[in-house]
Inverse folding.
């Protein structure tokens, strides 16, 4: 889509027939999509995974910027009214550039450090941010922490392997417990009050983490805040789909796409959404 064409398209198409675009390197953004399906039941969505290049978290910023731009071009083959970059890594690298290029609303994600620091303001506990190596290396992350953390109470831990486990839909308890125990072995967990899941793939493992972490530790991720912001932006721009009329049963529909055009992966995305939605219903 060329800059400036957005308003004309919105005028031409009925707002309700336009989709909300979701983008991630792989399956991670499904944890955010699941929240959007619950909070915005009248909307239709298109979800794009960059299967040609997942994972992003271990690549260079230049590589990721190119991959994100190319993937967004592919999403634009669908008519979208807004784009959610359901990926902390892609947001930190590409959101600013994309906003310069496109007129439609672009909602990005960043690790939920601010609410985590707020939660521990009075109890003296620390915050542990789990994210990809690339997110944690970005100057934007350092700037976010120094903006919200005036007591130096935030630590971070990159978990690149967790993205791979997720891409394989590997939920093997023993393997995952060993993995987390090994990664967390050098941390004294008693001094932490909140663990931030700063990569959208990680909430698939909330339940396992919940079991492993001491019960006083709260787990947070950015999906609720992101969907709240999406709803607010759509509402401000009069882009929310109208409520379904009484008697109609249509629910938000998701079209899954991936950059490798791989049918098996499309099936995997549908399966991942089912697994996550079920998991959320049971545990949270
Ligand atoms: N899901 C992504 C994030 O939120 C990226 C994971 C990856 O591709 O390494 O950071």
């Amino acid at each position: 889509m060329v800059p400036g064409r957005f308003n004309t398209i919105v005028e031409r198409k009925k707002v309700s027939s336009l989709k909300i675009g979701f983008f991630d390197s792989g399956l991670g953004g499904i944890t955010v999509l699941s929240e959007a399906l619950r909070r915005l039941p009248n909307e239709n969505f298109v979800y794009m995974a960059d299967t040609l290049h997942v994972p992003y978290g271990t690549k260079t910023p230049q590589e990721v910027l190119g991959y994100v731009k190319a993937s967004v071009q592919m999403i634009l083959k669908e008519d979208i009214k807004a784009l959610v970059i359901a990926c902390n890594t892609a947001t930190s690298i590409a959101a600013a550039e994309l906003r310069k290029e496109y007129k439609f609303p672009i909602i990005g994600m960043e690790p939920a450090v601010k609410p985590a620091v707020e939660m521990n303001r009075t109890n003296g506990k620390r915050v542990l941010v789990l994210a990809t190596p690339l997110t944690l290396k970005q100057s934007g992350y350092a700037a976010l922490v120094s903006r919200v953390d005036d007591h130096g109470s935030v630590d971070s831990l990159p978990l690149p392997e967790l993205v791979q486990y997720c891409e394989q839909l590997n939920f093997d308890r023993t393997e995952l417990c060993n993995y987390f125990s090994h990664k967390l072995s050098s941390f004294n967990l008693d001094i932490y009050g909140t663990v931030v899941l700063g990569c959208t793939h990680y909430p698939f493992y909330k339940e396992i983490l919940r079991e492993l972490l001491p019960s006083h530790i709260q787990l947070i991720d950015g999906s609720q805040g992101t969907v709240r912001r999406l709803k607010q932006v759509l509402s401000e721009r009069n882009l929310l789909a109208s409520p379904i009329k009484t008697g109609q049963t249509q629910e938000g529909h998701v079209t899954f796409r991936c950059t490798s055009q791989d049918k098996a992966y499309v099936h995997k995305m549908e399966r991942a959404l089912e697994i996550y939605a079920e998991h959320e219903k049971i545990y949270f």
